[in-house]
Amino acid sequence: MSLRIERVPTLRDNYTYLLVCEDTNEAAVVDAPEAAPVVRRVEAAGARVVKILSTHHHPDHSMANPELAERWRVPVYGHVSDRERLPGFTHGLEEGDTVSLGRHVARILHIPAHTRGHIAYVFDDAKAVFCGDTLFAAGCGRLFEGTPEMMWVALHDKLGKLPDDVRVFCGHEYTESNLVFAAHVEPGNLAVQWKLERVREARARAAADWHDAAPEEMTVPSTIGEERATNPFLRAADVAELGARRAQKDNFRG
Ligand code: FE
Ligand code: ZN
Known about the structure:
Blueprint: E1 3-10, E2 14-21, E3 26-30, H1 36-45, E4 48-53, H2 59-62, H3 65-72, E5 76-79, E6 91-93, E7 98-101, E8 104-110, E9 119-123, E10 128-132, E11 135-136, E12 139-140, H4 148-158, E13 167-170, H5 175-185, H6 190-204, E14 222-223, H7 224-230, H8 239-250
Parallel strand pairs: 3-4, 4-5, 5-6, 10-13
Antiparallel strand pairs: 1-2, 2-3, 7-8, 8-9, 9-10, 11-12, 13-14
Helix pairs in contact: 4-8, 5-6
């Protein structure tokens, strides 16, 4: 029983994910800002898309929802509070709800902070979480519609409670610049230094166009364990330190 996860590079640095249940060939698309690369990948995989899953309503994660939903005649899931603003919205989810995909089930975490309606999809059996713009590799999303307290709950009480070996599939390829900031705020953190070296090597091989990115240049997924070791927001001692680091990062030029 296996859930295959394909990373589809979209826009300039976004990740769209194609999830395929290999027992049933049922598939879901997570966060689709543009249709063409996703359609190409689905056709190459020969998968049958049955659902579109959105982490939040921002256009760089959802603009292609209506076109894809119409193409495959499938529902679009997002947080209940985003009914009016998530493109293509058909099904509302709340904390504790589940969504099935073939033999697999995702648990929903409501993690408002980047946006009020932000959710994460946790596949416990497949050891994968899709967390959009809340938790990034070595970073976290900007607080557009939330407070440091809300981000603390999202990172420490919810995502940070997942097991170390859960893979973190986030919304953007921001890892290198995030690690530069992490090294700035925690200069003695050797795990950050070591990962920054690895990530710089990977990113040095980046294609001119992100759409042509090869797996070798992608630094996502990370894991919850790696984030515990390297992420300055997950590692913040308290809400005040998290808030101070987030404010510092908003104006940081590496
Ligand atoms: Fe966003
Ligand atoms: Zn985004």
